[in-house]
Amino acid sequence: MAQNFLMEACVDSVESAINAERGGAGRLELCSSLLEGGLTPSLGLLQVVKQYVKIPVYVMIRPRGGDFLYSDQEVEVIRKDIELMKSHRADGLVLGSLTEDGRVDAKLCMEFLAAARPLPVTFHRAFDMVHDPVVALETLISLGFERLLTSGCENSALEGLPLIKRLVDQAKGRIAIMPGGGITERNLQRILEGSGAQEFHGSARSSKDSAMKFRNTCVTMGAAFSAPEYGLKVTDANKVRTLNAIAKNTL
After folding, report:
1. Which of 27, 52, 213, 234 has a CA between 20 and 30 Å from the CA of residue 91?
2. Distance (Å) of CA 171 to CA 6, 105, 121
3. Average pLDDT in the 140-146 region?
4. Helix, strand, or coil here: 207?
5. Average pLDDT estimate for 84-101
6. Where are the beta strands (DSSP E) in 159-198?
């Protein structure tokens, strides 16, 4: 019997992708730079991940961190990334764009969806920055997005649970509502029971020490908020397994 839930694992490496599939994830969201909320991954990463996993790989299309108001040049990059990811066997795309007054940029999104066709497209957590989520959801439905990833316009899906529940009720199956943001073994049951959602999104990562023996601890490669040079975060197959078991027992 098919299970009535699906976990989407957010991954930024081949190792994480393999671990996510091994743990029972039903779909991957492939990104780079998870510290910035996820950016467009390299074509090389997509190609190698596709060699190692069989589950669908949805690719993040986001040219930079920060807001979701894009310049003409950034829109050119998004168009090109959509074209490239499609031609290199992405199974779906994850994207979004807003206007300066916090509405879904329907004109741009319509263009992106047309370029992505026939691939299914998820609208990402740009939604959590909109001015009016009720209106924004209807816009996404009318445009033809397959699903919405949201933390309920809060820092985490647990904090945004009341809105996620309202969005699920409003959607009435016209678009999938997928909670994401801070989902762990401790809160998943509450989020699924409280929202009525059938899908959820998480990275399920554990810390992993670098294999480097020589370490220059005086240098960092990024800004002060960046990850430590000699520590890695990798999707943990056991955590994915646990999350799936919780979902199975809940739904």
Report:
1. 234
2. 18, 19, 16
3. 98
4. strand
5. 97
6. 176-179
Report helix, strand or coil for 194: helix
CB burial readout 7-39, b (16+ within 10 A) else e: bbbbbbbbebbbbbbebbbbbbbbbbbbeebbb
Cα–Cα nearest to 197, from 145, 234, 151: 151
Q: Which range is least confidently modeled, 77-91, 177-191, 229-243?
A: 229-243
Res 28: pLDDT? 98
Per cent of the chain over pLDDT 90 is 84
Look up tokens 């649970």; give the residue: 161
Question: CA-CA distances (angstroms) from residue 221 to 42, 206, 227?
Answer: 19, 21, 9
Position 189 pLDDT exceeds 50:
yes
Could you tell me which residue, 4 or 78, shows the higher pLDDT? 78
Quick one: 59 exposed, middle or buried, by C-beta within 10 A (0-12, 13-18, 19+)?
A: buried
Residues 6+ apart with CB under 8 A from 152: 128, 159, 160, 161, 162, 163, 164, 167, 179
Select from 137, 144, 141, 150 the least CA-distant residue to 120: 144
How far, in Å, CA of 24 to CA of 5, rounded?
11
Q: Which CATH superfamily is domain 6-250 in?
A: Copper homeostasis (CutC) domain (3.20.20.380)
The answer to whether the CB of 85 falls within 8 A of the CB of 61 is yes
Q: Where are the domains of the chain?
A: 6-250
Q: What is the pLDDT of residue 2?
A: 45
